[in-house]
Specification:
elongated; Arc Repressor Mutant, subunit A
């Protein structure tokens, strides 16, 4: 006879998720919502996790920025942070840090993808669109293009 495995409590689910990675409050709320039963108070649980320091939007922001900044530009990272429910105040405070290494990241991404400067306008437009899709600003993209043309 197979015993039915007991489902973890809402608190247990939250702690399991937080043990794997940092979550924003809104992201964890959305993750737990399908598992809420009428006796659960999800807001009180999230408040308690924040009070204990186990749930932090600031730490979630830091983790996302650290992981994404080598491959994506400031615009794309900021968009992803907004989607995850991080406040605009926290995002604005992190913008200078994100912009610091943006030129180097764009250059690195460009070199991995293309390696050679564009030979014509069509190729240049393709390379610019690629870097735009990665969330780099036009200012940074044009600097990368000027550097690549100067290296040639």
């Amino acid at each position: 006879m197979v015993k039915a495995k007991a489902q973890p409590s809402l608190r247990g689910r939250a702690l399991q998720a937080l043990a794997r990675r940092e979550f924003s409050r809104a992201e964890l709320h959305a993750r737990l919502l399908p598992h809420v039963v009428e006796t659960d108070d999800i807001a009180a649980l999230l408040d308690d996790l924040q009070k204990r320091g186990w749930l932090s939007d600031a730490r979630a922001l830091e983790q996302i920025v650290r992981i994404r900044s080598a491959r994506f530009g400031t615009q794309r990272i900021a968009h992803e942070l907004r989607q995850k429910g991080i406040s605009d105040e926290l995002i604005s405070a992190a913008l200078p840090q994100m912009k610091e290494g943006e030129l180097e990241a764009a250059r690195s991404v460009w070199q991995r993808k293309f390696a050679l400067p564009p030979q014509d306008q069509k190729e240049k437009a393709r390379q610019v669109r690629f870097l735009q899709s990665r969330g780099f600003s036009m200012d940074v993209i044009f600097k990368v293009m000027r550097i690549s043309e100067a290296d040639d």
